[in-house]
């Protein structure tokens, strides 16, 4: 049977086949992300720490170092970590099977060779019982095929998330990659203050979690799996979750409420194998947002607009 026309864009990503690479890459992105965290002024909801999709992988975007800037990019085509300074100097670290400790040492050495001084917190964020980066000899896997697949999926998800983002007039986050939780996410805000978040996230100060959830949100994202969920999935949650939110009907049929995680889930494979993957994912984004907005009594008339169209100004 011939492959579906969208199979190349939405490749298979069985968690069991790449879980070791996934765990190692998660920690590598934390090392890079913490360089950005250490140098970038705080922005609301920790938006200053995120990574962004690029045409070859994931990038920090420019990081300030006084009068100079540094950009660090994971290149999942040639499998290289690029460190590019604004004065034209460049260093690279090969993405290959090696320990987190070895990768950390190479990144810090490359940064030092560029004359850019920075110290990072070596304790992994949002991971219980994490090993300090410079001491981690446990995580040492890198399968270039699956790293490449992961990035290709992120590109497609980013495209659909970005389109979904255009249909909202209120405050909305960029589509960005959080290295703490290792997911691509987009968040809409009602504009109202939220109750103080209880915190309790492993190796994340409660003050950071509380600032991140200072206002009411409906947030959606893509996560490659791990812990209680051994498959890649899309998620959507509300904070605070209003009464009745969990029992709201959502689409497509494969979407469901996870009591364990306290959010709606849609397995990635249900999107990948759908006749219209974009449509299936957009149905999930719209219906879970509507569940949050309706039960939370958001002012939808003031917050929403038609979805964006290239070269056409929004109708007033």
Would you give an account of this structure?
By secondary structure, the chain is α+β, with helices and mostly antiparallel strands. The protein has 2 domains: 17-135; 144-303, no CATH class. The protein has helices at 15-39, 100-113, 144-165, 206-212, 268-272, 277-295, 300-303; strands spanning 52-53, 57-59, 63-65, 68-75, 80-85, 90-94, 176-178, 183-193, 215-223, 233-239, 256-258, 263-267. A hairpin with a 3-residue loop joins β1 and β2. α1 (15-39) runs parallel beside α2. The radius of gyration is 20 Å and the shape is globular. The mean pLDDT is 96.
Which stretches are low in confidence, meaning pLDDT under 50 for 5 or more residues running? none
Distance between the termini: 48 Å
Sheet with the most strands, sense and barrel status: 6 strands, antiparallel
Helical segment tally?
7
Notable traits:
globular; alpha+beta; single chain; 7 helices; 316 residues
Write a short abstract of this structure.
With 316 residues, this protein is α+β, with helices and mostly antiparallel strands.
Please outline the helices and strands.
Layout (H helix, E strand, L loop, with lengths): L14 H25 L12 E2 L3 E3 L3 E3 L2 E8 L4 E6 L4 E5 L5 H14 L30 H22 L10 E3 L4 E11 L12 H7 L2 E9 L9 E7 L16 E3 L4 E5 H5 L4 H19 L4 H4 L13
Antiparallel strand pairs: 1-2, 2-4, 3-4, 4-5, 5-6, 7-8, 8-9, 9-10, 10-12, 11-12
Helix pairs in contact: 1-2
